[in-house]
Amino acid sequence: MSFQRAQGVVKPLVAAALIAATLAGCAPIILGGAATGALVATDRRSVGAQTEDREIQIKAEANIANTLPEAAHVNVTVFNRRVLLTGEVPDEASKQRAVEIVRQISNVRGIVDELAIGPASSFGARSNDAWITSKVKANLINTKEISANVFKVVTERGDVYLMGLVSEEEGRIAANVASRVGGVEKVVKLYEYVKPEEAQRLSTEAAKNPAPAQPDDANAATVTTTPIGNDTVTAKPLSTPAPITEGPVKPGPSNKTGN
Fold this sequence. Notes:
Largest sheet: 4 strands, mixed
Region (Disordered): 199-259
Protein name: BON domain protein
Strand content: 15-25%
Structural class: alpha/beta
Keywords: Signal
InterPro entries: BON_dom (IPR007055), Lipoprotein_DolP (IPR051686), Transpt-assoc_nodulatn_dom_bac (IPR014004)
Number of helices: 6
Number of domains: 1
Helix content: 25-40%
Domain BON: 50-119, 128-195
């Protein structure tokens, strides 16, 4: 088999593996073109906070799925009780309903509404977003000034959202790294900032008591690793870095009780 032909076979396989792993919430480390496994979890959140975030995510996903029209495609990401909503909904009423559903869940203390009104994204668009997420994570891993484990990366329609308990310098470095990844349209910082010494303390505590990694997608079991064609993944080169913005967070009343 020629080298060019081998590349044509390997690239879709690697892309599929990256996409499946990203959808399941575990980004592989790419060294020398091969996936070497998932990162060891050193999340700066406490084990209790991670459990609570997972419970909020499950409730939000279930309630949204049971309430919104089938045409809606809503992704829920939770970090430290702040909920990011991405995806597409058919109308403004569905958009407002999704936000209200999250508001009713107990212990939610912030909501970032990034839902777009329009048809649900295609498989190709979602594959491309997963590919971008994997590239951002890989570049964060290769950036020695920061620890990639402390960042949560979400991509929707080419826009990259970064979450985490980080110092301002860590957040700046990660956003700059993400902004230079091919295909990224915009980087939105949704960090919670802590002082550098607090960030170090949280990392030290997390390393002593690592929590088992949890998948971000409740439906991860349905992800297939069937090879995808090259036309389903795009990587538009950027002549300049993508713009970086601070994302607005709507307050989520924490004193409400939810189901």
